[in-house]
Design a protein that fits this description.
The structure is a single chain. It is built from one helix and ten strands, in the order αββββββββββ. With 177 residues, it is mostly beta strands. β7 and β8 form a beta hairpin. The longest helix has 19 residues. The N terminus is likely disordered.
Length: 177
Amino acid sequence: MTNKFNALILGLGLSLSAFGAHAEQTVNATEVLIDADNQIAMIKENITIFDKNVHIVHGNRQIKADRLEAHRRPELGDNKQLLIATGNPAMYIETMEDGQQITASAAEIRYDVATQILQIKGDAKIEMADQQIIAETISYDIDKQTISAEKDKNSSTRVRTTLTPQSEEKPEEKEQP
């Protein structure tokens, strides 16, 4: 076995076993844990494919998909994975420091762990607190907390954002007899 093969299998195997054994614990922000029904490693290409019921955890972020390709790029050092999740739809969930959630869904979600860029394509939708953005492609820079959306060049459907006012009123508690 080659060193490349050993590193790929060891890294992904540890991720899978750590996820299964410690799923309820908080995940280290640098670890990417992947759980799935099936896994195939293509050693020469540095690609591992996870299939069926895929669940990825990276810090306070999760991706749920039908299929995942995990590309390892040794030239980038730490956090060298490019994760390409597909599903009907694939889902992304991030819990912010203030407890609010950002959710996204699309046919394809690309998560570059090194640059912290999330790109969602194909009926892309992202929702947070009081707004929803729908477009063909949406990019989310996690570090900068910026979102950009664009329409498909061959489509007349444009980017649509829906702002929903949040109610300040709290429902009154009903008195118990």
